[in-house]
Specification:
Layout: E1 4-7, E2 14-16, H1 19-25, H2 29-38, H3 44-50, H4 55-65, H5 70-78, E3 84-86, H6 90-99, E4 103-108, H7 112-118, E5 130-133, H8 134-137, H9 144-154, E6 161-165, H10 168-175, E7 180-183, H11 187-196
Parallel strand pairs: 1-4, 1-6, 4-5, 6-7
Antiparallel strand pairs: 2-3
Length: about 200
C-alpha cells in the first residue's frame, strides 16, 4: 500500500521553460540557439543545479561559451528566475492528497539563483512533510545518493512510496532504489497511474 508521494518540481508542480522568455530577448533563431546552448544546455548548468559554483563562476562559465553574446547572457542570468511559473492545480492537488492521509515530499534538481529569485513560487512546499533541493545537497538526480538522502532523512519506506518526475532517467533512478515511479506527462495521466497504485 502506498502511503508516500514524492514529487519533482519543474514541469510537475511548477512550470519550467525558457523558450518563450528567451525568444523575447534574442528573437533571431541563430542568436537564440547560441544563447540557449551557452546557458541552458551548457554542462555548467549541471553544476548550477548542484550549487557547486559561485554566481560569478556560473556566469563566467556561461559567458565563456559564447562571449560574443555577453549582453544577452548577462540579461538572461540577471532574471533567470523568470523561467518558472505557477501551475493552478498544484495547491489543490497537494491538499487533496494530504486529506487522504498521504505523506508528501519533494525531490528536485533546483539551482540556488532560481530559488533566490523565485522562492515565493514554491510556497506550496509548506504543505510537504519534507523536501530536498539539489543545490543544498550538492548532488542531483538521477544519482542514487540524493534519493537515499530523502529516504534516510525522512524515514521513507521505498516500497510504500511513489515518485513523480517528468524525466524518465530520474524516475528510473528512484525505481532502482525500490520506489515506485511514474513518468509525469500531465496531472490527469499521473492521477490515473496513482489510482492504479491504490490512491483513489
Amino acid at each position: 500500500m502506498i502511503d508516500t508521494v514524492i514529487f519533482d518540481l519543474g514541469n510537475v508542480l511548477v512550470g519550467f521553460g525558457w523558450e518563450e522568455w528567451l525568444r523575447s530577448i534574442v528573437p533571431e533563431e541563430k542568436d537564440y540557439l547560441a544563447v540557449e546552448q551557452a546557458v541552458f544546455r551548457n554542462p555548467a548548468w549541471v553544476e548550477h543545479d548542484k550549487g557547486l559554483l559561485t554566481e560569478e563562476e556560473e556566469l563566467e562559465e556561461f559567458l565563456s561559451a559564447a562571449p560574443e553574446y555577453e549582453a544577452e547572457i548577462c540579461q538572461v542570468y540577471k532574471d533567470i528566475g523568470r523561467c518558472i511559473w505557477d501551475l493552478p492545480y498544484t495547491v489543490p492537488w497537494l491538499q487533496e492528497l494530504k486529506a487522504k492521509g498521504l505523506k508528501l515530499y519533494a525531490l528536485s534538481n533546483w539551482p540556488k539563483r532560481v530559488y533566490d529569485q523565485r522562492g515565493s513560487k514554491l510556497d506550496f512546499l509548506e504543505l510537504m512533510d519534507g523536501y530536498i533541493l539539489s543545490y543544498r545537497e550538492h548532488v542531483i538526480k538521477p544519482y542514487p545518493e540524493i534519493y537515499q538522502r530523502l529516504i534516510s532523512r525522512y524515514g521513507i519506506c521505498p516500497e510504500r512510496a511513489v515518485f513523480l518526475d517528468d524525466t524518465p532517467a530520474n524516475v528510473e533512478g528512484a525505481r532502482r532504489l525500490g520506489i515506485h515511479g511514474i513518468h509525469f506527462r500531465s496531472k490527469e495521466q499521473a492521477e490515473e497511474e496513482l489510482r492504479g497504485l491504490g490512491i483513489e
